[in-house]
Amino acid sequence: IRNEMLSQQRQADWLFTKLNEVMIEECYRYRKNEQPQRDSLVDAKQWEQFVNTAQSKIRTSKQCLAPLVKTAQYWGMNKVQHYEWASMGLKYCDVLAAAASRNPIWEDARVKLNQLLLRRITEGRFLRKTSNPFYLVDLEHLIAWTGKTDFERKGRRAYTLKYETIAQSDLPVDYVLDRFGII
Questions:
Q1: Do residues 1 and 87 touch, judged by C-beta distance below 8 A?
Q2: What is the per-residue pLDDT across 22-41, written as a single tens digit (0 to 9) for each?
C-alpha cells in the first residue's frame, strides 16, 4: 500500500511539474508570478488527510490478517496475494475466510466461482478489470453452495447453476482463464 501511494505521489509531482512548465511558457500572468500561492493551512489539511487514509489502511490490513491467514491455509497464500484480497476490507476478508472454510478445496471453489462469474457475464454485467473479479455477493453465494451439487437460488430472481468445470472454449469472446483457472 505504501509503495502504491508513493508511486501515485511521484506521478502527481511529475504532472504538477509539467503543468507548471506549460503555464510558465504559455501564460504571461503566471510567468509574472501572479499565480495564487499555496496556503500552508490547506497543504497541512491535505497531508493530514493523506496520513489518516494511510493509517486507516494499515488498521484494516491488520484486522484482515487473521481471515487472510485462514483463507491461505485452505487455498494457498499465492491466491491471497494474486487476487489482492488484503486490500478489500474487513467484511470482505471475513466472508472470504468463511467461504474458504465451507469450500476448502480450491478446485471445488474454482468451479463454483467460475459459474457465478459466468452467470454475471451472460446477464450482460461485466467483471471488474482488476486481479480480483469477485464481489462480496459471489463469496456469500459460495458459502451457500454446498457440496458438488447444482446451486439453486430461490426468490424473486431465482436461478440454477450447474456444478461443472468451465473450459476456455465455454467463455465469451475477450474472456480468459487466469493462472488459477478463474475467469
A1: yes
A2: 777 777 776 666 555 555 66
Are 142 and 113 a contacting pair, CB within 8 Å?
yes
pTM: 0.69
Residue-by-residue DSSP string for 37-60: PPPHHHHHHHHHHHHHHHHHHHHH
What's 167's DSSP letter?
Answer: P
- Among 41, 43, 88, 31, smallest CA distance to 61 is for 88
The helix (run of H) or strand (run of E) holding residue 100 is helix 90-102
Domain boundaries, the chain: 64-170
Q: What cell does 85 get?
A: 484480497
Q: Within 13 Å, how many C-alpha atoms sit on residue 143's CB side?
A: 13
Residue type, 6: L
3-state SS, residue 180 = coil
Determine the average pLDDT of the residues in 86-103: 96
The predicted-structure confidence for 65-77, as pLDDT tens digits, reads as follows 999 999 999 999 9
